[in-house]
Design goal:
The protein has 14 helices and 20 strands. It has helices spanning 28-47, 50-66, 68-79, 83-101, 142-153, 167-180, 193-200, 212-225, 247-259, 279-291, 311-321, 372-380, 395-404, 439-445, and strands at 7-12, 15-24, 109-112, 120-127, 130-135, 157-162, 186-188, 205-209, 229-232, 237-241, 269-275, 326-328, 343-346, 363-369, 384-385, 387-391, 409-412, 428-429, 432-433, 447-454. Helix 9 (247-259) links the parallel strand 10 (237-241) and strand 11 (269-275).
Length: 460
């Protein structure tokens, strides 16, 4: 008797009885076969030239734009993304493909003088081959796109393994993208750990976004094979609020970064550091802002905080605040769906998991600091280093924060959430491994530099 084939299942987190996808996991052999078919298609995709690749990526952008309403509704239903955020993600996805549609025309090298004698020295960036992409569920269109589009623009082909919870979104994305590309150039395979491991073991370049534990495993496996790898693995992000800040604005920004999309973003704020006299007014303003966050059906345009992705995620958030006094929230609403109220706690004991681990939900800790230097020490004290927001009217304080904070991104008088897709994205310490994503940095990651020496025939 053979073992049963594992099923990939995706349910609506607002109504878990609503099953969008239930398909057999393809297995490691199917992944290996997809990689080989992609590798066979890569030379023609590259040699077709810049104009063909640019036109194809532009066609993808146009097709995604035409399907925007459908894709928005699918993201709301499958991953519980609030309607306004889902619309914004789809619009950003279209913009990503348009941005990288121009990349095939970018210079890919330089000409250099020889050290002595006639000839030319050239440098040229070339694609790696098959890009293996492993993506999370929380941005089901944008993250696969900001990995796939630069990979394709530079002449690679793509095999994408999405998170099981976003299988329907990934399959629909594949249907749209594949219409504009030659066969084998863009492949999506549903799956779990088995398929992910198989992809890492076969691809020529690997890009991963997900948990720290899995990301470290992916980075280790790819590095052992000697293939380029990048892994984005989350954050324990801080918002630093100084006494001279606009407290109401800082509270509004921070509440949005804690509770938006139920805190299910690697850039969400999970620690709020109030400096000196900012503590009391910020405690009041932020507690009130979080209590006022609209929680409910993500299909409702007014909703800011929808459900957690599944019961495990909801229970993880509830367990994290257990035993702590809540300034706001700290409750789990009755009824269907995996909801948790946006929550703020303080007086958290030293060593508590909230001060060391990413919970990935609408939950934050309020911490006092004596001055900016103390706040920076607190912000830097965790294993992660993705993004920090600093709220102040003092330019000098902002500049000191830029110099001293140990995070890959720093946002002044803005929420910790929010990504500019044309700029490098990534962190330090346990947040990221390898080169940056997005912008021109992605074009470099998906290519390697070659040096050519051209000498006249008969030269000595």
């Amino acid at each position: 008797m053979t073992d049963a084939v594992p099923l990939i299942t995706s349910c609506n987190p607002t109504d878990p009885s609503d099953v969008l996808v239930r398909v057999p996991a393809p297995g490691a052999f199917a992944v290996a076969d997809a990689v080989e078919r992609a590798r066979a298609a890569q030379p023609e995709w590259l040699l077709g030239g810049a104009a063909a690749r640019s036109a194809a990526l532009g066609a993808v952008a146009a097709a995604l734009d035409a399907a925007a309403a459908e894709l928005t509704a699918l993201a709301v239903r499958e991953v519980g993304k609030p309607l306004a955020e889902a619309r914004a993600e789809v619009a950003r996805t279209v913009a990503i493909w348009r941005y990288y549609a121009q990349a095939p025309y970018e210079p890919v090298g330089a000409v250099h003088e020889t050290a002595a004698g006639p000839g030319l020295l050239l440098t040229r960036r070339r694609p790696h081959g098959v890009a293996g992409l492993i993506t999370p569920w929380n941005f089901p269109f944008a993250i696969p796109s900001w990995k796939a589009a630069p990979a394709l623009a530079t002449g690679n082909v793509v095999v994408l393994k999405p998170a099981p919870e976003a299988t329907a979104c990934a399959q629909r994305l594949a249907e749209i993208v594949q219409r504009a590309l030659p066969a084998g150039v863009f492949t999506v395979l549903p799956g779990g750990a088995t398929e992910g491991d198989a992809l890492v073991s076969a691809a020529d370049v690997v890009s991963f976004t997900g948990s720290t534990t899995v990301g470290r495993s992916v980075a280790r496996a790819a590095t052992e094979r000697g293939v380029p790898v990048q892994a984005e693995m989350g954050g324990l992000n801080a918002a630093i609020v100084l006494p001279d800040a606009d407290i109401e604005q800082a509270a509004a920004h921070t509440a949005a970064a804690i509770a938006g999309y139920a805190g299910q973003k690697c850039t969400a704020t999970s620690r709020v550091i109030a400096v000196g006299a900012a503590l009391d007014p910020l405690r009041e303003a932020l507690s009130e802002a979080l209590r006022s966050v609209p929680v409910g059906d993500p299909a409702d345009g007014a909703t800011v905080s929808g459900p957690l992705i599944n019961q495990c995620a909801r229970d993880r958030v509830r367990d994290a605040w257990h035993g702590l006094g809540a300034l706001a929230g700290g409750t789990v609403p009755d009824g269907p769906g995996w909801y948790a109220a946006p929550t703020l706690v303080e007086k958290v004991p030293a060593g508590h998991r909230l001060l060391r681990e990413e919970v990935f939900g609408p939950l934050a800790v309020l911490l006092p600091a004596d001055d900016l230097a103390h706040a920076v020490r607190i912000a830097n004290s965790v294993p992660y280093g993705l993004v920090t927001s600093v709220h102040t009217a003092d330019l000098d304080a902002a500049l000191r924060g830029l110099d001293l904070l140990d995070t890959g991104m720093i946002r002044i008088n803005a929420p910790s959430t929010g990504v500019d897709f044309h700029l490098p994205f990534g962190g330090v310490k346990a947040s990221s491994h390898g080169p940056r994503e997005q912008g021109r940095a992605a074009l470099e990651f998906y290519t390697s530099s070659r040096t050519y020496t051209l000498s006249p025939a008969g030269a000595t």
